[in-house]
Amino acid sequence: ETGVTQTPRHLVMGMTNKKSLKCEQHLGHNAMYWYKQSAKKPLELMFVYNFKEQTENNSVPSRFSPECPNSSHLFLHLHTLQPEDSALYLCASSQVGGQGGSPLHFGNGTRLTVT
Amino acid sequence: RKEVEQDPGPFNVPEGATVAFNCTYSNSASQSFFWYRQDCRKEPKLLMSVYSSGNEDGRFTAQLNRASQYISLLIRDSKLSDSATYLCVVNGNLDTGRRALTFGSGTRLQVQP
CB distance A108–B42 less than 8 Å? Predict the structure, then answer.
């Protein structure tokens, strides 16, 4: 496989469920990201990991919990979500040197619906 | 003022037309600029980077105006397959002082036969 792969592609969960989104990159990049895209809104950066260390948490509620076990894998653990959390969740990776600014490569995204 | 601002459109143009999008950014210290393309219900994909001297890739031309803090994308000889949302992306400062790419809301292009 090449590029950035995300699973599952679609997820429907109740507000009391716990689920996890998975992302894997095969590009040899050293940074991984979670973005949220809601309808008619720009992409919102959620978390950034550089060399598997979290470097940014962009004021994301604690019901979203990221995990980065190594520089190729990224998870987003979800629990007690709200209906307004329904969105497209995109994982991305890039090769970062210094303060970033390298282009991002995105996965296909997970379309999440919270009922 | 939004960090990255784009006209949402939609821009409806006939096949073969030339169309241009502008994007303004607020952070004068931004160094990296990109245009991404996003098809409906798909992930964004890098279209081209934007260099200080301007750059061209086939029918696509990107330009940067640092003094006025805007970048532009020109598409010549539009094809039906160019129909998509075009996202302006700028590296911007987060509250922590570090930088990450900031996305505009996108400009929707619809090329009509």
Answer: yes
Q: Give the single-character DSSP code of A60.
A: -
Structure confidence by residue, pLDDT tens digits, A23-47: 999 999 999 999 999 987 889 989 9
Q: How far is A86 from chain B (nearest CA, A)?
A: 14
Per the CB < 8 Å rule, is A101 touching B31? yes
| Residue A113 touches partner B, C-beta closer than 8 Å | no
* pLDDT tens digits, one per residue of B45-72: 999 999 888 899 999 999 999 999 999 9
